[in-house]
Amino acid sequence: MDTLASVVTDVAKHHLPPPAEVHQHITSFGANVLWVTFIAFFVTFVVFAAKTFALKSSERANAYTSLFLITIAAIAYYSMATGLGVSEERRAHTHTYRQLFYARYVDWVFTTPLLLLELVLLSGLDLGTTLWIIGADIAMIVTGLFGALETGAFKWGWFFAGCLFMVFVLVGLLKNGRESAFRRNSDIGNLYSGLSISLLVLWCAYPIVWAASEGKAVISSDKEVLCYAVLDILAKIVFSTIIFIKHPIVVSANAEANSRLDEPLLGAAGSDAL
Ligand code: RET
Predict the structure, then answer these.
(1) Quick check: helix, strand or coil at residue 151?
(2) Is residue 216 helix, strand or coil?
(3) What CATH number is given to the structural domain containing 152?
(4) Which of 61, 74, 99, 264 could form a disulfide linkage to 41, CB 3.0–4.6 angstroms apart?
């Protein structure tokens, strides 16, 4: 004989409507934040383009780097504001679906190496360490994207892998990069120190926002969009503007690097060996 409980379960299974789906989406506030951020990047692009082309072509290395990272960010924000670079992920074991702004990972996978390149150009870091830092950075963003796409518990494995890669990046920048910058001269060393320490503080905020949004979904999609927008503006616009303002120091650093490149890379013995 059926117990009352099993009858109730059976009735519930067959006659009750399925649990309501919850969709965690941005509201018009979040959409406005995306548009305003796009406009901020677009205006910065116009200003940077004018300033870059006013420079002598031999002095444009850092300016081009800034220009391209601002361009990529503008493209990413346009795609998110128009609803293209966005998908929806189901939260594990729930009927909740949350918007995932995957365009930001496409943005970061290109722009974070460019940001690092700006610092590396300044510090005169060797090629091996540069590749190591940039490789770890790309791995950090890719693992972050997989973590955001993963709905089960493995999400946190991706996240911690991303954090580990970030540690590699930061150690390379703050230790090797700083030593190399001070070896050039104290002006470059001081500028580099200030920039790399602000980068450390800013970059550490990204995984915190990730954990609260793509990770645990404890903040709304609007807050997620706002936090990332503020961080992206600080990390890209403010950062690149400082490097632009310090242009004379940067140019002297690049000129010195170029003159070193003019010297034969291998000594006499090395040349003989080739
Ligand atoms: C993720 C999640 C996985 C763990 C870590 C992350 C770090 C992301 C960072 C992004 C920086 C972006 C910048 C954009 C510039 O405009 C991918 C969020 C550590 C540091 C600087």
Answers:
(1) coil
(2) coil
(3) 1.20.1070.10
(4) 74
CB 210 less than 6 A from any atom of ligand 1: yes
| 213 CB within 6 A, ligand 1 | no
The answer to whether residue 112 sits within a structural domain is yes
Q: Is residue 242 part of a domain?
A: yes
Report the number of distinct structural domains present in the chain: 1
Q: Is residue 7 part of a domain?
A: no
How far does residue 57's CA lie from ligand 1's centre (Å)? 32
CA-angle at 240, arms to 236 and 241, nearest 5°: 115
pLDDT in tens, 216-233: 999 999 999 999 999 999
DSSP secondary structure letters along 235-272 = IIIIHHHHHHHTHHHHHHHHHHHHHHHHS-SS-HHHHH
Q: 141 alpha carbon to ligand 1 midpoint, in Å?
A: 6
138-161 pLDDT, tens digit per residue, is 999 999 999 999 988 899 999 999
Mutating to test ligand 1, I would choose from 108, 154, 163, 202 the residue with most ligand atoms within 8 A of its C-beta, which is 108
The CB of 104 under 6 Å from ligand 1? The reply is no
Range of the domain at 45: 22-247
pLDDT at 273 over 60: no
> Lowest-pLDDT range, 11-15, 89-93, 235-239?
11-15
Cβ atoms of 65 and 125 closer than 8 Å: no
* Cα–ligand 1 centroid distance for 270 (angstroms): 42
Instruction: Give yes or no for residue 112 CB within 6 A of ligand 1.
Output: yes
Residue 131: inside a domain? yes
